[in-house]
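Subject: Response regulator

B.,
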Amino acid sequence: MIRVLLADDHALIREALVLLLSTEDGIEVVADVGRGDEAVARALALKPDVAVLDIDMPGMSGLDAAERLARDLPSCRLVIVTAHGRPGNLRRAMAAGVRGFLGKDAPGARLAEVVRQVAGGARYIDPQLAADALAAEECPLTARELDALRAAAGGEPVSRIARTLGLSEGTVRNYLSAAVTKLGVDNRHAAAQTARDRGWL
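Prediction pasted inline below.
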């Protein structure tokens, strides 16, 4: 029996996916949650074989949750199901150890197939998303510039971002300024939005 945790902040979608997977032989949904931080907590407690995560969730994004679970619960295989198949999201998911990545427009039965594949050690990447990722531009920002933008995305002041990242305020300003310049936007908020839209955050 493949034990699955499902996380999606849209209750209607989550309930439909739970119902879909529950009708499949050999698959048991052991938990379903609507927040990324809840997904991590429940997965660490229940130790499912597979976690199916949406990207955009409150509390913690599906990508952040995937990175945390890959580190803290490596036995759990990870699948991302998203309406936002941005190439940057796919790259980040792959770097986090995600084994399955498919769009929400995929046929319902495909999710069960992907769960079985990744539980068995295989990988599934939506072919169109993979093609888009290969054709997409590389992120021009450094890891530290991305860290600063990620911390700035919620509108925090530079002083708080500096404390969060363990950096000086001047260094944070430099990272944010470099990101704004590289992305050709007017301010750090626009830079964070651009990076998010391209799937880099």
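The longest helix spans residues 169-183.

T.
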